[in-house]
Amino acid sequence: MRSLLAALCACVVFAFSAQAQTFRSNKVQKQAAHAASGQIKAWNPEQGTLTLLVPTPVTVQTNQRFATKQIIQTTTRVFQVEPACPVFEEDVEDTTDILLPGQYVSLTYALKSRGQAFKDQRVATRIVIEKPPQPTNRSALTLPPIVREANALKQELEKSDYLRVARFTPGQSGKFPPQSQSYYFRVLQMMGPKEGTVEEIQVFPRQQQELFYFRGDPALGWVDGKEIKLEGYYEVTGKKTYQNLAGSTKTVFVLEPESEAAKKKREAAERGTEAAKRDATAKETEEARVKKQQRIEQAKQRIAKRDAMLKSKPVTAAPIKPAPTPSDASAAAAKLRLAKVLLEAGKTESANARLEQIIKDYPGTEAAEEAKGLLGK
Which of 73, 90, 114, 215 has the greatest number of CB atoms lying within 10 Å of its CB? Predict the structure, then answer.
């Protein structure tokens, strides 16, 4: 029984020690890691102070009883930037004078105590200039997964560079969207060995079935009711009027495999689009490079202006007073004794003149300090 109690006590002590060690390690990690991000409100390169607008989550109480919600508030924080603190902008390392109001930055900092005031001073150790954060669509994030999947599929199907039966025009060429269980094709009625009517079916999100007439080698072996995949490029060649199984006539578009002429026309249009995209990207890159170069030049001008201001105001050192020697102390003491004798004799004017002379000739000595006291009386 005693051994069982001893083992139980040892387990409890070990658990408490492990929990205390974990708490201490978590506390150390929490103290060691400090980071912040926000928008620059002000930057003072002379004093090295950086003021940030930092978004902070705050829990507030709503009108309902015991109900709370979390909102984002902006807090103003001031950081002390050391001269050796590195600043990075994208892939270019710049000086701290590149910082401009309105920029978004993220920084790591250390806390330093300021004497006995028990206030922490945030000293930045590394600053990275970032792009403005993109706004998040909170309504899209709260939708059920099946609805988000349907919206994504709908956006994919509605892209203008895909073929859709509802958007058919004579002479149009291209390919259909990726086909799946929610979007596929089915043969409705074969009219010959290599031609027949086909339905475009979109299950989710549900859409009205569209009908067209297909003609070409891929139709070889098709049968009524068969689900098929139309992959590759096709061309809308015109319209056709046919008689269905019910005996009524219907006019629909005709789709065939893409011809060589349509292929060359499509590839030329794609090359033109790619060239336009490359030109637009090159233009944006050049504009970004020019803006960055302008910021660097502005920073250099500020640095030059600051250096000129510092040079125009030279710092003059205060004169260093020599320390009193033992001989000066003894001479001052002798003259002080004589001044005291004159005071006792009632010769105040002569005594005051000697006291002033001691203060002037022997500053920093004990006799000069005592002479100041006697002179004040």
Answer: 215
